[in-house]
Amino acid sequence: MSNFQYMRASALDEAAAKVKGAEDGAVLAGGMTLLPSIKLGLSSPSDLVDLGGIGDLAGITSAGGSVTIGAMTCHADVANSGDVPPALAAMASGIGDRQVRNRGTIGGSIANNDPAADYPAACLALGATINTDQRSIAADDFFTGLFETALNDGEIITSVSFPTPDKAAYQKFTSPASRFALVGVFVAAGSDGVRVAVTGCGQGGVYRDADLESALAASFSADALADKSVSSDNLLSDIHAAADYRAHLIVEMTKRAVAACG
Amino acid sequence: MPDGNATGIGASVPRKEDRRFITGKGNYTDDINRPNQTYAYFLRSDIAHATLNGVDTSAAEKAGGVVAVFTGADLAAAEVGGVPCGWALTFQNGDPMKEPGHPILAQGKVRHVGDPIAVVIAESRKQAKAAAAEIKVNLSDLPVVVDMTKAIEGGQSVHDEAEDNICFDWAIGDKAEVDAVFEGADHVTSIDIVNNRLIPNSMEPRVAIGDFEDSTGDYTLYTTTQNPHVIRLLMGAFVLKIPEHKLRVVSPDVGGGFGSKIFHYAEEAMVTWASAQINRPVKWTSDRSEAFMSDAHGRDHVTKASLALDKDGKFIGLKEETLANMGGYLSTFGPAIPTYMHSVLMAGVYTTPVIYSNIIAVFTNTVPVDAYRGAGRPEATYIIERLVDRAAREMGISQVELRRKNFIPEDAFPYQTPVALAYDSGNYNATLDTALKNGDVDGFDARKAESAKNGRLRGIGYSTYVEACGAAPSAVAGALGARAGLYECANVRVHPTGSVTVFTGSHSHGQGHETAFAQLVSEKLGMHTENIEIVHGDTEKIPFGMGTFGSRSLAVGGSAIDKALDKIIDKSRKIVSHILEAGEGDIKFADGNFTVAGTDKTMAFGEVALAAYVPHNYPLEELEPGLEETAFYDPTNFTYPAGCHVCEVEVDPTTGVTEVVKFTAADDPGTVVNPMIVEGQVHGGIAQGIGQALLEGCSYDDNGQLLTGSYMDYTMPRADNLPNYVVSTESTACTHNPLGVKGCGEVGAIGSPPAVINAIVDALSDLGVTDVAMPATPQTVWRAIQAAK
């Protein structure tokens, strides 16, 4: 672990300026990934700019059929919110453990875009909009690869807006060891049609499965997937799940998510 | 338990040690800091096999805060010895095993990821670690051998001394005789088994502090060991050539060992030696990632085994051929685990008349393998109980009936097995009956039907096991290759006012000795445990000790305490005889009071103690003052805990997820001193057994890289992986130790894995599945189902 300068910003523009001005600055949200990375020597930023002091970055507001979650809102607050879609609250309640859910934030999770994280699947399936200090980005354009997003250097997520789906559910099959998603499938049906987002599986991170979406668009039922299979090409493979097992679980978790939509 | 003595044998006395543990007041090795202390960081190999051409430490030596940097060359120049092996095996022809050196820091080659190459000693851990990054290591890659079969079939040699990577090829039993029995058998059941490699993961990582005192020439090593005297002996005599009177080893509170803290490790010798070089204390604290690649691993056997039966299902012969992984170097007891802790258990609880066990120990480019909770006996039990389960299925005999038919009957004890051990006592039908009842096995079919309604496949699996604890008769161990005796020592010091301190060689690192041992004293002297203190873990305080492993503490260490207490009572009786003017034979001792038969003369134990230390009226011409006795106890046999574990699982056939929904254990640990502690030991052991069966599996890739190098990939059992256990004891007394105790520390880990896997096989038997490998992860179970389709 190397030394770094710590700074707690009180306003968004101050944080942005500080990150920009640093030799190798990093934005600190909940720190659930960044701090362990620094401790293990995998990351060594010169400056950490903590967003925790910027009050208006946290909180949940709903208006006009959509709900907006501040970037610094922790998972526990989303899990306990009556304003967010129930599927999103349920998903948030299953992230990590109690400590993680009270420190980790939605903004941090999606900015990091871990290929096994839960929030990216929710954003994609629900057709969320990611709002930054510079612009708004559709979820479909946001997640660009493993740990890669459309964010520019120094661009800071301020909130995420979710339209209210007609139906939605998330099913996670966890890694026995880490309890991260080995396969996570978020299914949503709404004005945008049926969207199926898969996390934990893609070599390029979270993705939408067009094939499963069209099958469900034709008939939104688990039975519609009875004979469905997905290709294991381009899926991750590791000691806990080879690509073919992940492919099998994607269909199974999709069925369960559809069934959970009621 | 005497009347009014709530803390004697058989009482669930709350653990005396827990208050300090749960309030954060334990004193662990890492809590110890010595004045002017420095910090060591080990630079470890990140490749599995390479020639070590050179190590350039010049930049590291100049780095901030660095006090010294040492390499294997420095240790060679100083003629520091290597880590010794404590057990010598032989080839079948009598040739000694191949015993290559195990240098403290790598010399000539690195042989596994984690092999230490250099140590940096600095003013802080951070500085030491930063400086280590400045060390330039010149390595030339060598081909890597991870798979044991490949290793012995022309694989790259790990050691020049063992060109074919075979450390020893050893056997017990008459192969020709066993083969002949198999020729004539009505039925032969065979199985191929991989007993998965496990990484121990005690809660507290290893720590060592070397502290040399220049003015006296005394060395002190503070270390996280299960047996401080053994470390003093091994390190002092074989590595650093320090005589015992100049070397003190302190092992304070230790946060779990499970076997992995038995062994003498290179880091202990390194910090001790380095402390003398720099004339300052040197502290090393392992981090968790380092523990994964430097603590000795467990298990890792590959076995082909067969069971021969007659037409009625009577076992008539058993044979196994096992490859046992030694890793890159021999750890302290590595060679003993697959042989004298394993092959000699291959009779199990059955009357199988002829047995042949062939063990080939193999060097590979992996972390050394040694004892881990159960140590050899889980591997034996797993082979036997998987074979029995499969034989029952193949022959259409019920699991319970086939076992009963082959049990060693209750009236056959002492029972001489064909593989050296002679069991002194047991009642295998009794533990089986209890498990069947407590596990409501009669209700299984109804539960299975209920599970099926929810799309779950329910299965039931059995394991009836025996193990050998209480190591060991020293003469027997010596004849079998042990390089040490395996007795235990106790010193009982009665203080002038009658309270007692016991100094025991049995180290406690979670087992509750401070309570259970105090109960032995309470029982015998009729005093409350609050007046009794148990001291362990310091070679300067304890006369001697072989330490804690193999569930031996109560059977051997407890018996030593019992013997010392006998001496205390004998001496007390002489004192009472003098003071009360009565013949020794007329003096009875019960409930803490000496009484003269037929009179109302009495003396409390505390009064005797005072008389011994204030000898105004005392037989000084015959007896020394004071009341303190030491005893060494060397057992005449192993002890043989046994029992029955019954497991029920539910499998989700679409995902392969297996849930243990019911687990029933009925164990025979001999006399139970503290039922609560026994129950806790069994719970912990089963957790580790279920861990092995379902979750834990150390995995290397072909390059010898550890794929399960952290908790992100190595699956430790957690509370939500485990059911509520139903555990009970059904004891028969050990016949050859004074307490009648057998042991309970390992039974859970020994008995449970085959019960779990047999249950999964049962659940999937309707799908045509006949085998599932450990760990039965969801993916493994799913693949077994797919393969059977």
Oligomeric status:
heterodimer
Q: Which CATH architecture of the largest domain in chain A is right?
A: 2-Layer Sandwich
Give the spatial strand order of the biggest sheet of chain B: 3-5-1-12-9-10-11
Principal-axes geometry of chain B comes out as: globular
- Helix coverage percent of residues of chain A? 25-40%
> CATH topology of the largest domain in chain A, what is it called?
Uridine Diphospho-n-acetylenolpyruvylglucosamine Reductase, domain 3
DSSP helical segment count of chain A:
10
What is the terminal separation of chain A in angstroms? 49 Å
The spatial strand order of the largest sheet of chain A comes to 4-5-10-6-7
From the alpha carbons, calculate the radius of gyration of chain B and give it in angstroms: 27 Å
Describe, in short, the structure shown:
The complex is a heterodimer of chains A (262) and B (789). Chain A has 262 residues and is an alpha+beta fold.
Describe the structure.
The complex is a heterodimer of chains A (262) and B (789). Chain A is α+β, with helices and mostly antiparallel strands and 262 residues long. Chain A folds into three domains: 5-50, Uridine Diphospho-n-acetylenolpyruvylglucosamine Reductase, domain 2; 58-163, 2-Layer Sandwich (Uridine Diphospho-n-acetylenolpyruvylglucosamine Reductase, domain 3); 167-261, CO dehydrogenase flavoprotein, C-terminal domain (Enolase-like, domain 1, 2-Layer Sandwich). Chain A has ten helices and 14 strands. Chain B is α+β, with helices and mostly antiparallel strands and 789 residues long. Helix content of chain B is 28%, strand content 22%. Chain B has 20 helices and 28 strands. Chain B is globular. In chain B, 57% of the residues are buried. The model of chain B has no long low-confidence stretch (mean pLDDT 97). The A-B interface holds A 1, 173, 176-178, 238-242, 245, 248-249, 252 and B 126, 654-655, 695, 699, 707-708, 711-716, 777-779, 782-783.
